[in-house]
C-alpha cells in the first residue's frame, strides 16, 4: 500500500469531551472554524497526498503506488467542476465515515477512511470549511492505472464490509483526558496504523494487533507499542516528545522515509499538548514485542559476516559500540528503525544516504561502494549487535530489489532537488553565492565552505543548521554534475565531501 492519504486530522470531540478541543475562542465564528480546519488539515498533511510534484497545493494529481497499480489523488480545492465545490456537508462526512464519494462511488482505502471513521462530524466539517476557503483550481483528475478486477469499484463494498469498523471515537472513562486525547489522534485522524500496522494482501491493517510495525512503501515502520525491547517503552516521555516535535532525539536517532514527511509536514505543527497526548497514549498501549530476541554467537568475537564491513564503512562515524557521537552522529544501538521487525529501512538508508537532521550531520550513500551481499550482511550485523537482538532477515536479493527502488540525489540516482526553504532558496540564488559555489573544487573546498556558511548565517541567522547544510548541498549538486573533468563516482564523492565539510564548518564556526 502506498503512503497514507492524510486528509483531516481532528482535534475536538464533543461538548461532553471538551477537553479534546484545541481551537481557541474568537469573536469571528466563521474565521475561527476556518482556522481550526486549517490546523487540522495541516496536522493531517492533506497537502502531501493531494498535491502533485511541483503542482498547486490541494489540486491533486499525485500518482500513488498500490499493490494493484497507480492511483491518482483527486483535486480537493472547492472547484465545482473538478474539485469538491459541490459536496454537501453530509456527502463530505460520508467520505470520512464510510469511504463513499459524492456520487456514491466506493473509495479505495488509500484514503484511510477506516481510521477516519472515528472522526467527529464537527472536526470533519471544520476541515471542509478550510478547504472551501481556498481558491478553486480547475484540475481534472488524472487517470489511474488500477488493473482488473480491482478497477471495479463496486467490489470495494466487500472490502468495506469485512474491514471497515464504523463508529465515532468514544472516550474511555477509565482513562485520563490526556490519554483519550492521544487515542483520538493516534487511532483516528492521525491514522498511525496506516504505516505501523501489519497489513494483509488486500491492504487492510491487522486491527487485532495494531501498532506492532509493518512494511510501507518498501520501508519498515517500527513497533510503537509500549514494549520495552522492540517498541517505544524504552524511551522516556521527553525523548519521544522531542523526536515527534523535531525529528531527532539523542537515544532514538532521526526520522527517515515516510516518517520524515509526516514529521516535517504534520507532527512538527501539532501543539505541545497534542504531542504530549500522543506520547501518553502510546505509552499506555499494551506492550507487544515484534519478535523474539536473537543473540548470534558470532557477536562475541566479531566473526559475523557483516562485522568487517561495519568496520570498513560504518565504525568511523557510528563507533565500535554503535552509540554514534552525541549530537553529531545518531546511534545505531537501541535505534528504533534499526530494531524494527524488518530490515528495509536500514537497507534503504545505507543505499540512499540521509540528509542532515537537527544537529546530526548528513550520511553519504555508503552502499554505492558495497555489493548487495555486503549491504545485507552489515544490515544484519547492526540489527543484531549492541543488544539490538533483531533477527537476521536481510538478503542480497532484497537489497538488489531495494537498490532499484532507492532514488536519491545523495546516491547519484535522482536529479538534483530544489531548495524548498524560501529564505535559503533566495540565498543560494544570489549571484555571489553561485559564483562561490561554481568555483568550489577539491583544493579549496574547506575554504569556500567556510565562506558559504558565514554568508548564510549573515543572510539569515535563524535558519536551522540542517536547512543550511542541505540547501547548500542541493545548490552545489547541479554544479558538480556539470563537471566533466570528473567521472560519476568522483562527482558523487565530491558532493558528499562538500556536504560533510559544510556541516563541519557550520558546527565549528556557524553556531551562535
Offer a concise description of the structure.
The chain is mostly helical and 512 residues long. The protein has helices at 29-44, 46-49, 89-98, 113-116, 121-132, 156-163, 177-189, 193-196, 237-246, 258-265, 272-284, 305-313, 315-318, 344-352, 372-384, 396-405, 422-428, 431-438, 445-459, 465-481, 488-510, and strands at 63-66, 69-72, 214-216, 219-221, 248-249, 253-254. A hairpin with a 2-residue loop joins strand 3 and strand 4 (219-221).
Structural class: mainly alpha
Distance from first to last alpha carbon: 44 Å
Count all strands and give the number.
6
Low-pLDDT ranges: 1-25
Shape category: globular
Strand content: under 5%
Largest sheet: 2 strands, antiparallel
Write out the strand line-up for the largest beta sheet, numbering strands in chain order.
1-2
Would you tell me the overall average pLDDT? 85
- Number of H- or I-type helical stretches: 21
Written description of the protein model:
By secondary structure, this protein is mostly helical. It folds into four domains: 15-163; 177-284, Cytochrome Bc1 Complex, Chain D, domain 2; 297-411, Cytochrome c-like domain (Cytochrome Bc1 Complex, Chain D, domain 2), CATH 1.10.760.10; 422-510, no CATH class. Helices cover 42% and strands 4% of the residues. The protein is built from 21 helices and six strands. Helix 12 (305-313) crosses helix 15 (372-384) and helix 15 (372-384) crosses helix 16. The longest helix has 23 residues, at 488-510. It is globular. The protein starts with 28 loop residues before the first helix and ends with a helix. Residues 1-25 have low confidence and may be disordered.
Amino acid at each position: 500500500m502506498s503512503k497514507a492519504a492524510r486528509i483531516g486530522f481532528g482535534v475536538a470531540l464533543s461538548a461532553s469531551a471538551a477537553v479534546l478541543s484545541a481551537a481557541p475562542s474568537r469573536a469571528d465564528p466563521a474565521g475561527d472554524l476556518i482556522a481550526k480546519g486549517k490546523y487540522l488539515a495541516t496536522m493531517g498533511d492533506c497537502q502531501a497526498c493531494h498535491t502533485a510534484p511541483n503542482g498547486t497545493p490541494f489540486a491533486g494529481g499525485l500518482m500513488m503506488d498500490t499493490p494493484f497499480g497507480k492511483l491518482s489523488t483527486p483535486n480537493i480545492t472547492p472547484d465545482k467542476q473538478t474539485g469538491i465545490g459541490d459536496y454537501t456537508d453530509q456527502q463530505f462526512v460520508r467520505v470520512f465515515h464510510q469511504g463513499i464519494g459524492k456520487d456514491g462511488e466506493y473509495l479505495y482505502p488509500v484514503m484511510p477512511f477506516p481510521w477516519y471513521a472515528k472522526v467527529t462530524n464537527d472536526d470533519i466539517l471544520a476541515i471542509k470549511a478550510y478547504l472551501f476557503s481556498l481558491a478553486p483550481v480547475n484540475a481534472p483528475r488524472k487517470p489511474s492505472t488500477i488493473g482488473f478486477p480491482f478497477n471495479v469499484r463496486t467490489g470495494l463494498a466487500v472490502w468495506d464490509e469485512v474491514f471497515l469498523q464504523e463508529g465515532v471515537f468514544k472516550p474511555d472513562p477509565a482513562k485520563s483526558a490526556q490519554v483519550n486525547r492521544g487515542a483520538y489522534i493516534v487511532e483516528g485522524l492521525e491514522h498511525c496504523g496506516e504505516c505501523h500496522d501489519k497489513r494483509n494482501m488486500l491492504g487492510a491493517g491487522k486491527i487485532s494487533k495494531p501498532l506492532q510495525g509493518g512494511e510501507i512503501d518498501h520501508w519498515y515502520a517500527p513497533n510503537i507499542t509500549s514494549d520495552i525491547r522492540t517498541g517505544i517503552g524504552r524511551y522516556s516521555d521527553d525523548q519521544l516528545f522531542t523526536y515527534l516535535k523535531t525529528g531527532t532525539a539523542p537515544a532514538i536517532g532521526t526520522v527517515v522515509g515516510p516518517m520524515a514527511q509526516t514529521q516535517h509536514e504534520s507532527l512538527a505543527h501539532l501543539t505541545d499538548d497534542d504531542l504530549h497526548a500522543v506520547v501518553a497514549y502510546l505509552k499506555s498501549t499494551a506492550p507487544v514485542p515484534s519478535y523474539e530476541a536473537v543473540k548470534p554467537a558470532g557477536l562475541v568475537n566479531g566473526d559475523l559476516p557483516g562485522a568487517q564491513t561495519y568496520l570498513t564503512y560504518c565504525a568511523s562515524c557510528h563507533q565500535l559500540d554503535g552509540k554514534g557521537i552525541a549530537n553529531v552522529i545518531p546511534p545505531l544501538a537501541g535505534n528504533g528503525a534499526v530494531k524494527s521487525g524488518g530490515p528495509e529501512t536500514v537497507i534503504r538508508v545505507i543505499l540512499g544516504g540521509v540528509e542532515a537532521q537537527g544537529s546530526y550531520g548528513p550520511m553519504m550513500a555508503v552502499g554505492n561502494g558495497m555489493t548487495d551481499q555486503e549491504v545485507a550482511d552489515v544490515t544484519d550485523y547492526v540489527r543484531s549487535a549492541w543488544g539490538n537482538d533483531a533477527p537476521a532477515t536481510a538478503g542480497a536479493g532484497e537489497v538488489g530489489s531495494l537498490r532499484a527502488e532507492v532514488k536519491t540525489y545523495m546516491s547519484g540516482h535522482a536529479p538534483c532537488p530544489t531548495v524548498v526553504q524560501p529564505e535559503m532558496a533566495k540565498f543560494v540564488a544570489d549571484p555571489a553565492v553561485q559564483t562561490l559555489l561554481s568555483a568550489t573544487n577539491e583544493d579549496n573546498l574547506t575554504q569556500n565552505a567556510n565562506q558559504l556558511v558565514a554568508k548564510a548565517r549573515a543572510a539569515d541567522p535563524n535558519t536551522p543548521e540542517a536547512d543550511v547544510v542541505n540547501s547548500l548541498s542541493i545548490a552545489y549538486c547541479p554544479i558538480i554534475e556539470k563537471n566533466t573533468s570528473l567521472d560519476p563516482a568522483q562527482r558523487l564523492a565530491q558532493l558528499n565531501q562538500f556536504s560533510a565539510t559544510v556541516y563541519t564548518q557550520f558546527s565549528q564556526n556557524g553556531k551562535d
